Batch of 4 targets.
Target 1
Amino acid sequence: MHCPFCRHTDSRVVDSRVQEEGTVIRRRRQCPECGRRFGTMETATLSVIKRSGATEPFSRDKVISGVRKACQGRPVSEDELQRLAQQVEESIRSLGQAEVDAHEVGLAILEPLRCLDEVAYLRFASVYQAFDSLDDFQAAITLLRTERDAATPAGMP
């Protein structure tokens, strides 16, 4: 790390703090040459490999943008979208890989979206899983109903 003031090639860490739920480390550093202090922030990078083979940094904003389209006209708040994007990022990071396929990101979106709003889930799944016919929609709806009925105790509506 170069000192931003004198460009000396070394610095020592004076203090470290974890921020943003453990995803960022903020460090206070001091230059041994000029004695001035400066701060750095370190994050573990997470890259997404697209179908084309190109790699780009993971972006919560892109997750929110894609899910927002599926949630258009649905009673879903911005806070809920933010929480969903955080869940997706945590899920992807828990895989323990520095690079993940875009397909994995899509899979990580499906479950939290289904819990958030079933209609938005169907919209997203229809595009993500390339539904070709009404039968694809019917199969997805049947699966949703079966899982919901299995989760509902007997005698409850």
Target 2
Amino acid sequence: MLNEAMTADPVRANTDPLPGEPPVPDGDRVVQGEDWYGRVLTDRHSWTGYTFLDTDWTEVANRGAVFDSCVFAGVRFNASRHTGAVFTDCVFRRCTFFDTCFTDCRMLGSVFRQSTFTLLEVVRGDWSFTGLPGADLRGASFSDVRMREADLAGARLEKASVTGTDLTGAMLHSARLEGADLRGSELSALNPLTVRLAGAKIDAEQAVVIATALGLRVC
């Protein structure tokens, strides 16, 4: 397991950026190869500084469990449902999120690396400062989510739905947003010269923001 002093590093990338060997997990806080299929987690469950290796979380019903400074490596979150759960300063490596839903969850400062997302759905909650650079989020759905200063640089969001979402200060350089539904989202951090927007859906207010970013005058 993780050393208790260890927290998720602040660099948000899909590759491990830190030099040298990774810290040796605390053996007393390692959950490896366990089958958690269909398990129910509640707000009475809490883990700090744990490492979850190659565990199966398929169809887990997570209703408010708390995970702080944990590492998830090779974990299968397929068809799991997370409501009011907390994942702060966590690292997700090589995890699979197929038909996974997060509702009213708090993901502050968590980092996703080399993970796959298919039919991901996020409803409300706070995903500020999360790291999703280069993530393949094609077709994903983010609705009314707080994603302030999230790292979405190079992320693939073609045909994704990102509606009513607060992207203030988000890193969007080189993001692909072709055909995405962006209506109602805060887009002041979006530079239309550094992202791909062909076919994206925006509302009239967003059109003014983007036109202004291009140096145009809206009369």
Target 3
Amino acid sequence: MQKRAELYRGKAKTVYTTDDPDRLILEFRNDTSALDGERIEQFDRKGMVNNKFNHFIMNKLEEAGVPTQMERLLSDTEVLVKKLDMVPVECVIRNRAAGSLVRRLGVEEGLVLSPPLFDLFLKNDALHDPMVNESYCETFSWVSKEQLAEMKSLSYKANEILSKLFDDAGLILVDFKLEFGLFKGQVILGDEFSPDGCRLWDKETLDKMDKDRFRQSLGGLIEAYEEVAHRIGVVLD
């Protein structure tokens, strides 16, 4: 597949067009950002780790019946995907209290949430990704009621699959975000699933094994990412 023009440069990935109008190439870079992109650093191997991690997770979800945009791995840092019309809303599943939920409600970090919470956020860095609800999505025509219901259903299904995957690897899937798009009218899981977009804690020590290590200046970011990848069976080298 021939890479063509740069279509979009995000905080950690670059998207390229290809000679197929229905396919794109995602390149995972070594950039790591926090505070809506105000703080950015580079870490060796991060692009490779996240690319192979994402490919592994998307394949697991696809096998379990969650449609994804994944096509195939192209290189250590690149993957071929379907071109989606992205929905400008992030879906967040919370299994335990952490991050903004703790700050908003004053609950204890780590509180088990039963049933898990489903939150929606408008993708807009300038507005700091404000929290919205299903009514906003319908009123502002970000996504139809039926499509949003499918996004919610797929988010919970992904939670069931991935919670078990990580639990079997000695990890707690605390929370995660998903992004969806439309491909020929079908709701498809897009973007990525990596330690950049979820919270993972060690079951025994409760050590943070995700991007919070960068946000909170804990150190050992790539070592944690590689440890998680190793535990769930991602082949990095």
Target 4
Amino acid sequence: MSIAKLNNQATLCRRISTCESSGVTLLLITVALSYLVLFLGLPLLAVFVEAFSKGWALYWAALQEPDAWSAIQLTLIAAAISVPANLVFGVAAAWAIAKFEFKGKSLLITLIDLPFAVSPVVSGLVFVLLFGAQGWFGPWLQAHDIKLIFAVPGIVLATIFVTFPFIARELIPLMQAQGKEEEEAAVSLGASGWQTFHRVTLPIIAPGVVAAALFAFAVSFDQFVISYFLAPPGVSTLPVEIYAAIRKGFTPEVNAVSAALVTLAIKSLVEWQARRSGEPLHGAH
């Protein structure tokens, strides 16, 4: 082997940090794919196979059941309110963290990650202690005939709390990778802060915003513990309805409502399309 070829190979190894044989590479890929298929692919495949095992007619009939439809409506309402609210907060927080230096920046990042560290049981308990009948604000809420806990507003608040880190955490590395040069150039040319964000920053991060919103929307469909704590009497959210159906017996109806996982597939499609169009996503140019 020539010295030039060895030098090229060494340069390539340094560029990719390691240089393994094709056998080792194939083994690692096989292990990773086998793990994904076994613990992710097969369970999801089973969900959709069972959902359609008795035909489309039973699938649509299951979705039109009064209890299932009520659960879907409540979950959609909570998601439709929480996702836009978190989108505004997430974009603002990511822009501040990625583009500016200020006191309390580390504290803000820690607070954004707080729902990841807090158990859903503790999260539900926090809302009960704050807004329940014996909670801090319970007497005032009762005096003004405002009901948050065991009502739709409680479900919305809990969904916002659980899902708000996802959008900010999705956009922070993307904005950091974007850098500040383009914004600084726009400001030097006389653009205001809003014009800089609207005309420079937002078009670049738009695919990431859409993907993050879809991810938060999908996560809002899976808040079982908090929904179980805070759902109104006689009304359930989608995960609680699935749990109730499982207790009655594993039926295609359970899998029919579980098919909301399609949202994650849409998110992946958005990311793939963004990469094809050359837009940076997930912190990569």
